[in-house]
Amino acid sequence: MMAFSITDHHSIMQDSTTSKEKILKKIRKALIHKSPQEIGDVDKESEIFAISEEPLEIQFAQNFSALNGKFVFCENEGEFIENFDFFVKDNNWENIFTLEPEIKTLLAKGNIKFSDKEEDLLKTDIGLTFCECLIARTGSVMVSSKQLSGRRIPVYSNFHVVVAYTSQLVSNVKDGLKFIKEKYNSQLPSMISTITGPSRTADIEKTLVQGAHGPREIFVFMIDDLQAE
To answer: Hey, what domains does the chain have and what are their CATH numbers?
Structure first.
């Protein structure tokens, strides 16, 4: 076993202090004698990712599907009713919940049973919501606390169904935030979040589990409302 004397310990401490003082002196010198070189304006507008030539709806569908999202394109609201009704019957979906008046109207047209009662929220299997916008580059769904569905439905339901429109497509997150800012002006939501695929975690034994802290699956039914333009 190697032994250190008091003298050795003092020498080590002195060297450490000396090194620390040298660093502090350099910092003080840098603060007093600032570099004359000026940093130019930072370019915040140019794209840092390669710009895709694909339409936004194709970009979103590809990126969203790559994240295990389920994407369904609908030419109009009537087709949405038909497609959603098919999913309900094919998967034996029950306990469908929504708070959005427009979605309630669509479901009622298709004679699809649903609930909008608060007491049914905790036992919801299928939660239908709108979104603020869709981020094409990342395949993400942007939501906020200003929506009637709030923070709860996207988390409580086992299957989160997003009803969106092609007019809500934006290229990236920056454009999404601009979209929301223009929509609400100075009254911004207290919460803005992006949902990128179903909830998943690999914290336990590094085994990937979906639906660990949120919906097991997320669906986006995109309705084309720009077809006539």
So the answer is: 56-223 (3.40.50.10420)
What's the token pair of residue 98? 């929504």
Q: Look at residues 137, 130, 13, 172 and name the one whose alpha carbon lies nearest to residue 63.
A: 137
Per-residue pLDDT tens digits for 76-114: 999 999 999 999 999 999 999 999 999 999 999 999 999
Phi-psi label, residue 63: left if phi above 0, alpha if psi -120 to 50, beta otherwise: alpha
Tokens standing for residue 78: 């009537």
C-alpha separations of 161 from 131, 180, 187, 227, 229 in Å: 10, 21, 27, 23, 27
Among 211, 146, 151, 166, which Cα is nearest to 72's?
166
Buried b / exposed e along 154-177 (16+ C-beta atoms within 10 A): bebbebbbbbbbbebbbbbbebbb
Tell me how far apart the alpha carbons of residues 46 and 49 are, in angstroms, rounded to a whole number.
9
Strand, helix or coil for residue 171: coil
Instruction: Read off the amino acid at residue 11.
Output: S
pLDDT of residue 229: 52
